[in-house]
Amino acid sequence: MEFLQVLILGICLGFVYALMVSGLTLIFGVMRIVNLAHPILIICGSFVSYWLFIKIGLDPILSIPIAGLVVAALGVFIYKLIFEKNAAQQTYSEMTVLLTFGTAMVIDGILSFFFHNTQRTTSPSYATDAIFFGDIFIPLAQLYSGLVSSVIIVGLAVFLKYSDFGIAIRATSQNRTSAELVGVNVKFVCLISFGIGCALAGSAGALVSFVFSFFPSRHWEWIAIMMSLVVLGGMGSLTGAVIGALVLSVVSSMVGAFFSPAWSTMVFFLSLFLILIIRPRGLFGIQSD
After folding, report:
1. Does the model's pTM come out above 0.85?
2. How far is CA 233 from CA 22, 146, 240, 263, in A?
3. What sign has the CA pseudo-torsion 35, 144, 66, 105?
4. To 5 degrees, how large is the angle CA 152–CA 125–CA 115?
5. Three-state SS across 22-82?
6. Which of 104, 112, 121, 157 could lock onto 37 through a cystine, CB 3.0 to 4.6 A?
């Protein structure tokens, strides 16, 4: 019974983690940008949702579109300012590690100045409620966040597979030169893809605001966790990111429940270490030439 309880909770959180990394893996897949600033953009989305909840009482789930648009606008500004002019350089991916690290530090400093490093959380009415099935309970906060995350991820997958712009995104991620030859405006695709990736971060931030406590500097803790998820699944693979998030979330929950909560976070770090040694391209990654 306890195993089933932990499994359910792990799956619910797994979908939230999957949404958190979906934008990160989309951005890498299209532009080869290793976006270390992605976690702080999630925090930005959390603060947008938190501010709307405090000021006008807007439910965090209903604030998802606003948080997504605000963070998307910030992402487009960052891309135009920092990344667009360097896209043609040979060492672009390597440069983005340093550029996004510096960007994360700047945004962290700005958020810390205005909000300080005080732990915050939104508290909608369902945040402390749960559904009971005999001895098994499902916290409504985790249930709702997991369901909403899965809907957004499915919507993203459908958009990428069936829409004309989604096909252009996939063509650009597979072969940038070939996409240009068949008439794809690669610069525009990269700009919008970065904006979509940041919108996903903002959307995840709205859900994170009532699932976890958050503060500006918490993004440093999330960097390694999110990198372990995308590396396990395969950098640039949305399917891999979702599966990696679900697997590691469940394993982490099991370790926390049956061994020690202190070891649950270690699961992400250990998996990152092992997968880089054993299978660097991840479960669904493509072997580079």
Report:
1. yes
2. 11, 19, 4, 22
3. negative
4. 75
5. HHHHHHHHHHCCCCCCHHHHHHHHHHHHHHHHHHHCCCCCCCHHHHHHHHHHHHHHHHHHH
6. 104
Judge whether 49 and 171 are in contact, CB under 8 Å.
no
> Is there a contact between 149 and 19 (Cβ–Cβ < 8 Å)?
yes
Q: What's the token pair of residue 73?
A: 């606008």
- Each residue's pLDDT tens digit, 201-240: 999 999 999 998 899 988 888 888 888 888 887 777 788 8
> What is the rounded distance in angstroms from the CA atom of residue 271 to the CA atom of residue 233?
11
At residue 59, what is the residue type?
D
Cα–Cα distance, 6 to 216 (Å, whole number): 29
> Could you report the per-residue pLDDT of 247-262, keeping only the tens digit for each?
888 988 888 888 877 7
